Amino acid sequence: MELSVLWKLSYGMYAIGTLDGTRPTGCIVNTVAQITSTNPVIAVSMNKNNFTYEAIKKTGRFTVSILTEKTAPNVIAKLGFCSGRDTDKFDGKDFAWKALDGLPVVKDNCAGHLVAEVLSMTEVETHYIILARVKDAQPCTNFAPMTYKYYHEVIKGSAPKNAPTYQASAAQKTTSGSTTEKWVCSICGYVYEGDLTKEPADWVCPICKQPKSKFVKQ
Ligand code: FE
User: Which domains does the chain carry?
Assistant: First the structure.
């Protein structure tokens, strides 16, 4: 079986927002799908280890910010590569957010925002499938929605370990078979091609904003 075939499935990039009590929190997912057309229901896949899942379970509601090709990498870095357990992801330092129906959404450059109410949660091995009714849908911009393919190929981001599409050997595979010097971010898996030591001392990973010291030469 060649698991890389699964990479040919299409996905988007979405910021999920909810509340941990009164504190906004959230994460990045690539799997949000519309399941029914009338009075629409959506499905979201989320890792069991994800703090956002626990918050959604308690709050029963969440938002989906549909990210676009104009979305700042900071949004994905802050929401996708930190944990809401120990990080205040909506502290406003890395990206702007606003409240929609009392829940946090990414403010700038989204294609649209959804507010959803949980119908059911089904356990599937490492993940939960959350089925939720769409209660509100607001358009934002006409920028092209960011696909997972775009995120991989243009932004050169990788799948966080909690993503359903994460494959442990993926980073290694992409760094083999080439003579170009490569450095891999140990936090997010971003691959830098070239001599990283020539970058200035304050250079940071474009995805997760970690310093050069977090990079490992392949
Ligand atoms: Fe990184």
Answer: 11-153 (2.30.110.10), 168-217 (2.20.28.10)
